[in-house]
Amino acid sequence: MNLKININFLEKYLAYLVNDFEYKRMTEKYEKLDVEYKRITENLKEYDLMADVDDQRFHHFRSTVNRI
Fold first, then answer.
1. Residue that wins the pLDDT comparison between 18 and 60
2. DSSP state of 3
3. What is the DSSP letter of 68?
4. Which residues in 36-68 are b (16+ Cβ under 10 Å) and which e?
5. What percent of the chain has pLDDT over 70?
6. CA distances (Å), 59 to each of 1, 47, 48, 51, 63, in order?
7. How far apart are CA 53 and CA 14, in angstroms?
8. Whole-angstrom Cα distance, residue 35 to residue 29?
9. Integer Cα distance of 68 and 66 in angstroms
10. Per-residue DSSP letters for 11-35?
11. What is the DSSP letter of 1?
């Protein structure tokens, strides 16, 4: 009886360790993805700002060309 209780306890403990390890691994992965997402988002914002400036230049240039 005591042996069966210990095996049951060990099975539950092993399942807990596996789940904990998997959770930590996934959390690490998501943290890396989050950092990568933030880096890409910042780059896109910079690119978007540059595109807005280029758009404004283009519209300004087109409006001066149309006036002549």
1. 18
2. H
3. -
4. eeeeeeeeeeeeeeeeeeeeeeeeeeeeeeeee
5. 66
6. 84, 18, 16, 12, 6
7. 58
8. 10
9. 6
10. HHHHHHHHHHHHHHHHHHHHHHHHH
11. -
Distance between CA 20 and CA 14 in Å, rounded? 10
Which amino acid type is present at position 21? F
* pLDDT per position as a tens digit, 23-53: 999 999 999 999 998 888 888 777 776 666 6
Q: Could you say which DSSP state residue 5 is in?
A: H
Would you state the pLDDT for residue 19?
A: 92
- Enter the tokens of residue 20: 């904990």
Mean pLDDT of the chain: 78
Residue 64 tokens, joined: 């001066």
